[in-house]
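Example 3.2
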Amino acid sequence: PKLELRGDVAENWLWATHRFTFAAAVRAAVDTWPDPDRRRLLGLVVMFLHTGRAMDLPVEERPSLAGEPGDPLEAVGRGDAAAAIARALHPGLDLEALAPRLEDLVLGDPVVRPIVVAHAIKTPFAALEEVRELAEHPQARLPLAAALRFLASPLKERRVHDAVTTSIEWVVEGKVPRKLTQ
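Structure, written as tokens:
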């Protein structure tokens, strides 16, 4: 969340969601692709996740993973990421009842810029799929918690003017945006 509000670095929430949705896509591909070479994709996922470590919060600043009862989407609506995470992780949460409400939320214009809209839609859909795939795993709800954290956190949809200025500086002056993840 701290990087989202910084204009001096390229990384923001979208960079984090790319890693999650890429890993989810590779999981689905590896499950269905019979070629032994599919394992190389797993190495690519590991590398991609590893390069994103600069975006991680220090361990001591990370939210609790203890579950609590309540509606996680209500917490998302208030911008309370910690409560959204805790509620997503509560074992009593009815995922089948939550799924259509979450889909309604992300399809109901919560953001503006097309690239942010794409991430706001694909991240929760991928999270629900991963939760179903993980089913009985003790950490099965972490993908949902991560997606809800993204939706509840402040999103700064970077202005077109800023993006164009950065792009022109890159092309004309060779001034590459500062990156933390490569």
